Amino acid sequence: MNAPQFFAPRPSRILRPGERALPPNVERYPVAGGGSLIVDVAAGDKLLITDIEGGQYTEIAFCDPLGRFDASGLGVAAGQEAEGLTGVLSGRDAVRSRAALRRRNIDLAKVKVIGLFGADSAAGAKAEFTMQANGTVIIAVPPADMSPETQNTVTDVELRILRLTPRPKTTLSDLPEPLSDPLQDIRIRAATARAFVVKAGEYIQIIDVSGHQMTDFQCFSAAKLDKGIENALDATVTRTLTGRAYPVPGLPSKAFGFDFEPMIEVVQDTCGRHDAFATACNPRYYDDVGYPGHANCTENFNFALDPYGIAKRKGWEALNFFYNTQMNHANVIVSDEAWSRPGDYVLVKALTDLVCVTSSCPDDIDPGNGWNPTDIHVRTYSATEKFSRAVAYRMTPDADPVMTKETAFHSSLANYTRNFVEYRGYWLPQRYHNEEPIEEYWACREKVVVLDLSPLRKFEVTGPDAEALLQYCLTRDIKKLSTGQVVYSAMCYENGGMIDDGTVFRLGQNLFRWIGGDDYSGIWLREQAEKMGYKAWVRSSTDHLHNIAVQGPLSRDLLKEIIWTSPTQSSIGELEWFRFAVARIGHFEGIPIVVSRTGYTGELGYEIFCHPKHAAQVFDAVWAAGQKYGLKPMGLEALDMVRIEAGLIFANYEFNSETDPFEAGIGFTVPLKTKTDDFIGREALQQRKDHPRRKLVGLEIDANEAVGHGDCVHIGRAQIGVVTSGLRSPLLGKSIALARVDALNSKTGTDVEIGKADGFAKRLPAKVVRFAHYDPEKTRPRS
Fold first, then answer.
1. Distance between CA atoms of 288 and 279, rounded to whole angstroms?
2. Looking at residues 94-117, what average pLDDT do you find?
C-alpha cells in the first residue's frame, strides 16, 4: 500500500494585465508623437528606444550635469543639428518638459542630436545606447504637418532604461516629473498623516507613489478657523450639490463645506475610482474586527491637526481618494483593492485659503491597500499655474494614461456651451446653451446640424500588403473597395465577438484609412500584420485628423456653397452615399479637407476631416454658410436620440466582445456567401449565423415612462432579453428602445414587458416592431 501524499496549500495567483511587470532595474517611459521626454541617466545604463508603429523619425540628445550637450555620452562620436527637437520643446504642450530643463539648467541653444528611425522603419524597430557618462537624456518625436489626403502621421515611441544600478527609492526618484515647479513636496509615510496650508488658487497634487494605496483628504477654511469655526469639507453636502457620488473634473467638480462654501475643485484625476460615503478608518473599525490599537486615519488626522487647534473626532468625514468603494445591488457598501497605479494622482484647486490634512491609510487587514500600506506624496503648485481639466484615458488596460484633451474644434464650440463631457479622452459638448437637446434633434431631422466627432480613432494602413491585412481582419470584402469609396465593417475576434465597428476609406491601391471607436482596433491590426508577415504599417492619426459632421436634409445645399473639388473628383452634389472626395474649403487654394458622405444620424449627411490647425477656419466657413439654412450645433444627448431612432449601434450598449455582428444588428457586414477569402472569425460567425441565440430588435413601449440601457425584457416571469438603448422619440411620439432578445422571441409583433423597479413589481408593456424605428430602408441618407 502506497503512503499517502501530502501537498502544501497553493499560493494565490494574481494577474495584473493592466500593469506592466518590470524588473527592479528596468524603467519604461512613453514618448507621445509630437511630444518629448527628459530623464536622468547614469554611466553604464542601457537605453532601448522602440518605434512602436513604425515610420517615426525621432531625435535624442545627451547633456552632462553641467548643462553641456555631448553626443559622446551616448557612445556616439558627434551629433547633428536638430530638425525637430527644439520645435517640440518650444510648443504649447511642452510646459512640463521646459520646466524639467529649467530645473536642470539646460539651455537648448547649442543642442546636438542623434536622428533615429525614419519613414521606412518597421513597426517595433529599435535603437540601443549604452551611457558613457552621467547626465540627462532628451528625446523628442517631431510632429508631421499631416494633410487629410496624405498619411504622414506622427506616432509614439517608447524608451526603456536598464539601470546598471537601480535608483534608490528616495522621496523624489520614485515620482513622475512635477506638473510644474512645486511650492511644497510633502512625503506622507505609510500609515501616517500630515497637515499643510495652501492659499486660495493654489493646486494640490495627491500622488499614489507605489500604487493601490488609499488616502483620505480633509480641509478647513483657514479664515473661519481664525474665527473659531471649523468649516470642514462635507461629503454629504458635496453629493447633494453635485448629484454625484464624488466630484470629478468637469462641471460637477467642486467639493463643499458643511455650510455649502465651495472648498476645492477637482481639476485632474488619473485614477477614476474614489469614495465619499464612509468616514476615514477609525479605532472602532479595527477594535470590532479584533485589532485593538491598530493605527488608523482618524487618530492620525487628530494628531496632525492638533497644532491648528482643531478638535479631535472619533471619525473623520473625508474625500477618500483611490478607495475602491461601491454600493452593490443589495445596498451594501462593498470595497476592494484600490484601482490606482504607481504615479496616479488627483489634482485639486483650493477655492479659499485652506488648512489641509492627508493620510496614507494604514489598512493592512483587507485588500484595500493591496494588503501592504505604502507612501502618499503631496505637491502644491502656485496659483499662477494653468492646468486644464482632465481625466486619464487608457487605450488598453496596460497603456499609459493620456489626459483628456480638447479637440481642435473645442474653442469654436465653447462659444455656445460650457457643458462638455469626457468621451474617449476628449471633451465633447453634451448640450448647448439656449438650445435643449430636443431643438438640436429637430434641427437634424428638418434642417442641418454640425457636431464634433474628432475622438473617432483613425489609423493609416499603408504598404504593399495593406489590402491583404484588412481583408483578413475585417468582415467586409475589402478587395471590392474602389479608390474614393467607403465601407462600413465589423472587426471580430476568432470566436466571432466584436472588437469594433468602423469605416474603411480607400485612398489608393495600397493606402487605406480605418476609422473606428476603439484604440485597440489599431493595435489588433498591427498584431495581425506581424503574426501573418504582412508588409503593412498601421499608424495612428487620431490627433492629426479631426472631423466634424454636417448632418440633415439641408446639409448638401450648405456644403455645395463652401467646398471646392477638382474636376477629377466628384462635386458635393455628385458625391454618392459612402463615397469621399479630396477637397478644399472655398477654392483650389483653400484649406485641404477630405469630405465623406457618411454619418451617424440616419439623415443625409457628410463628415469633414482636416488637420487640427485648420479646424477653426473650417468651422467658421461651415457656420457662416449655415446661418441661412438654420444650422445649429448638436451635442451628444441629441446625437444619441437620432442614432437610436435610426437603429445605429453604439459600443458597450448594442455590442461588446461577447456580441457578434448578427446579434448587434449589423449582419449585413458579414458577407459569408460572397467573400471567398478567409478572415478572422469566419468559422465562428458561420456557426453563429446558422444557430442564432440573440437578436437586436426594436421595441415600442405602451407607456410614457423612460426606459434605458440595462432594463430587463420579460415574457411572463422569464427574462428573455435586455434593453440596450432607449428614449422618448419626438418624431414618433412614443417611447422606443433597442433590445437584444432571445432569437426565438424576436419576431415582429411579439408582446413583451420591460421590467422596472426590481423587474417584477413594475412592468411596461411593449411590442417587437420593425427594425429600425426611423427610415428602415435608409432612404434619407441615400437621397
1. 16
2. 87
